[in-house]
Each structure stands twice: as C-alpha cells, then as structure tokens.
C-alpha cells in the first residue's frame, strides 16, 4: 500500500526575497546606460562645469564651488530618488512588469525594499564620486567631527522623503513614455528655486517661499551647514542653519510621502 504525503512547499523568508529583489534592482539599474548617465554622471558633469566657470569667492574665504557642493549633492539625491523612482516605476507599470510581480508569491514589501536599497546604493555612489572630485580637483573642505553625523541624517531623511515622493509621483504619468517628460521639468524647477545653481539668498523672496514647501531646499540647507562656516549661516532666510526645522520638515515629508504612496500606488495602468 502506498501512502501519499502532502508536503507544504517552504517559501523563502521575506528577508531573503527582499535581498534577492535588491540585487535585481541594482543589476537592472546599472545595465541601463541612460539611467546611469543621467542619474550618476549628470551631477558630476555639473560640478565639473560650474567648478571651472564659477570659481569666485562668495565671502568669508569660501568659494562658490564649496557652496555648490551642498546643492549638487542634494540634487544628486533628488535624481537618485524622486526622478529615478518616478520614471522607473511608471515604466515598469506601463510595460506590465508590476502586474506580473503582483501576481507572484513575492511579498509586496520586498519590491519596495529593493527600490529603497537601489536608491541608497546609487546615492552613496553619487556622494562618493562628487566628494572625490571636489577634494582632488577643487580643494573642497570636507565635514569634520560631528558634522558627518549631520551629513548622514540629512542624507538619509532627504533620500527617504524623495523616494516616497517619487513612488507617489510615478502615478501621475499616463505611461512609461511620458514619465520623463512629467517628472524631469518638476525636478529642474525645484533645483533652480532651491539654491542648487545659485546662492539661495540671491533668489527672489517668492521663490524662496515656494522652495520652502519642498524637501530639496531643506536638504540643501542642512548640507550647507556641514560644508560652510557658521559665519555664512547669517545669509540664510532665518539667519541660522535651522537644523531642527530641517529635520522636522524632512520627517514630515516622509510621512506625507508614505500617505501619498498608500493612497495612489497601483500595480497596473488604469
């Protein structure tokens, strides 16, 4: 007599699936030359061009390149998180990738963990390359002591806020082809009004007010506090670095971004 025994198939843990998904996301990103060039090399190109053209003193013995370093890092974080997430997710939704993933036993959380790991890895790569070029070619003064802690939490909070916002914004694009045209102009406007390419104090008051609504301005301000001497804090709108408010606004955007993600994210086109 034969006995049939049904054995339950043991599925991999959420951690194992998340790790595997993160590896897939990283491989897919670095295999897309356009994405790598736009996300990683564009900030490097901007630093090189602006550093060569705008090499002048802005006060207190600080060069524009030293000031620009904070802004271009913030812009790099924005590109790696908000722009990259919005465009890639809209494309994956349009070509059916998200629908296919939703139909597998993969935990939904593993998909988002993979995206977050990709953003953090690309962000670290961008920061590392920018700092290397800044130090070697332009003599940038790096943060010291406790300033690295400020650098770390501003980067993490800023990347988290922009990643969540990028996932939410991906739902605004009608399809993958229109994603870049939808997201890129918004990101460029944010960069121009948030003190990335110009001294923030030199912008019109209404631009400063609009910029203060979004996380990029606060990322730039927090990063300026670690690259610039305290004497230049007087040129900020409030006359100080306002690190407490920087943390509060970025944390608030993390909450807002999460709420928007839950409310708007979908696995397939309408």
TrEMBL record:
InterPro entries tied to this protein: ABC2_TM, ABC2_TM_bact-type, ABC_2_transport, Nod_factor_ABC_transporter
Transmembrane regions listed in the UniProt entry: 35-54, 66-91, 112-138, 150-169, 181-200, 246-265
Entry's localization field: Membrane
Domain ABC transmembrane type-2: 34-268
Record's bilayer topology term: Multi-pass membrane protein
The keyword Transmembrane helix appears for this protein: yes
Assigned keywords, A-Z: Antibiotic resistance, Membrane, Transmembrane, Transmembrane helix
PROSITE patterns associated with the record: ABC_TM2
Pfam families, per the entry: ABC2_membrane_3
Ranges in a coiled coil: none
Identification of the protein by name: ABC transporter permease
């Amino acid at each position: 007599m034969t006995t049939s025994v049904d054995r339950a198939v043991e599925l991999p843990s959420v951690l194992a699936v998340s790790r595997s998904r993160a590896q897939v996301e990283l491989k897919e990103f670095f295999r897309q030359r356009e994405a790598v060039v736009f996300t990683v090399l564009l900030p490097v190109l901007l630093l090189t061009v602006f550093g060569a053209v705008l090499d002048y003193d802005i006060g207190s013995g600080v060069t524009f390149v030293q000031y620009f370093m904070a802004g271009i890092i913030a812009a790099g974080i924005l590109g790696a998180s908000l722009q990259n997430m919005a465009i890639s997710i809209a494309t994956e939704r349009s070509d059916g990738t998200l629908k296919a993933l939703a139909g597998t036993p993969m935990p939904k959380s593993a998909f988002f963990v993979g995206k977050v790991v990709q953003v953090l890895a690309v962000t670290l790569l961008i920061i590392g390359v920018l700092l290397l070029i800044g130090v070697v070619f332009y003599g940038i003064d790096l943060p010291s002591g406790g300033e690295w802690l400020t650098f770390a939490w501003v980067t993490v909070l800023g990347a988290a806020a922009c990643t969540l916002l990028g996932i939410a914004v991906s739902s605004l694009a009608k399809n993958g082809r229109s994603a870049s045209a939808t997201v890129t102009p918004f990101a460029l406007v944010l960069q121009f009004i948030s003190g990335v390419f110009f001294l923030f104090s030199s912008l019109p008051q209404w631009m400063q007010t609009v910029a203060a609504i979004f996380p990029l301005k606060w990322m730039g301000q927090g990063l300026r506090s670690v690259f610039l001497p305290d004497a230049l804090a007087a040129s900020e709108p409030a006359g100080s670095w306002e690190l407490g408010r920087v943390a509060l606004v970025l944390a608030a955007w993390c909450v807002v971004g999460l709420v928007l993600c839950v409310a708007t994210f979908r696995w397939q086109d309408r």
